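User: I'm preparing a small set of examples for a lab meeting where we compare how different chains pack in three dimensions. I only have the primary sequence for this one, and I'd like the structure in token form so I can line it up with the others. Please keep the answer compact; I'll paste it straight into my notes.
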Amino acid sequence: MNEAETAGMILRRRHFQFLLVSSLYLVWPLAVQAAAPSKPPLVAPANYSVFKNISPHVHFQWQQVSNATNYHLYVSANAGLSDPKVHNETLPATYYYRDVYPNWPNNVYYWSVDAENAGQFSGVTGNIRTFILDTPLGAPTITSPAASPRPVYSVGARPVISWAAPGGGAVNRYQARLVSGTNLNSPSLIGNPTNGAEPVYSPYTLPAMLNAGTYTFAVRAMKQMPSVFGYSQSTYESVIGWGSYASITFDVVCTTPSPPALSSPASNATLSPGAIMFSWGASNGANRYRLKICTDSAMSQNITGSPFEPGIGVRQKDVTLSSGTYYWQVGAIGTNELCGWGAYGPSPAWRLNIVCTVPSPPSLTGPANNSTLSPGPVTFSWGTSSGANRYRLKICTDSAMSQNITGSPFEPGVGVRQKDVTLSSGTYYWQVGAIGTNELCGWGAY
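Assistant: Understood. Below is the structure token output for the 446-residue chain.
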């Protein structure tokens, strides 16, 4: 091949290459990025939900978005869902709910779902909800009184109960109930019959115990919800509920004072009729006393007015008695007077003898026996007689002292021992008798 032919071949080859190159497309590399999915609307649990931390699971639910390839379920105790998360799970696009069986401590939690499409994420900002997991408080600890031995109070007493707060959280308030017996389901005697009394505070003073019997006091605590905006204490309480009861059982008994010791009159004393002062000692816990006086040793035949009640704290009583044999005892009633009167005592009852004794006739002083006087006023006088209150002068015209002169017998007055009497001519006989101080036994002999 000559030079001309060679040159032509080269020229034709170049022309072909040019034509080949010019007939091809020019291709540049181009990366196309998938679009981020929209945020999946959250369905459950509702914002500000409260769950008792003994439920079997928490049900999370959301609405699916069209271009998601995966969902990421996040749960954290931090408000912005920052790490560490208590739950971080990737789920296929077919999922729209997840039941989580957590073992999380009581706390405020935040959750959301992040949708993904080929590495592009919807994000969770503005799409975060919160819920609370919590449990009721335990029982308070009753610190006073001690439960053993079982406390005993008297009717009318007002027991005071003290307790310490339970652990596991702050207390919002306490609720108490008092029931007859030991069944806490019985109607409460304080507050509302169904729910009891609230709020109550330690120490708590019970109302006066009006009846003897066995009672049980119980107290429980309501937890204070976490201090987080948006939650309602009432909603929180409706889910979490009251804590356990702490209780104490006690007895209320009727105790009456013992009979007091008798003072006077002494047992088997003998006194004259009249006002007799009865007195006795104090009895522990007594408010008032009553004196029982009977005419029989069985204490069944009360005299008029018996039993006598002299008043609060009074330990003596004047009673007017006539001749006879009497028996007496004293009983007492307690300060609150709710248990009634205690027994009378002592037993057997003390005996009292009331005997009528009249004064002896006084000695006569003037005129002398067998005197002879002129008609006119004659002064009669006499001495004293032990126990006499008054005297009376008897003047008769016969020695048998049956024919009284006009006005006889004469009673000159209390303590007076003489009397002027105008007499005419004749023979007269005279005597003087006396009556005792209380004048209950009548006139003594002349």
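A couple of notes for your slides: Residues 1-26 have pLDDT under 50 and may be disordered. Residues 3-22 form the longest helix (20 residues).

User: Perfect, thanks.
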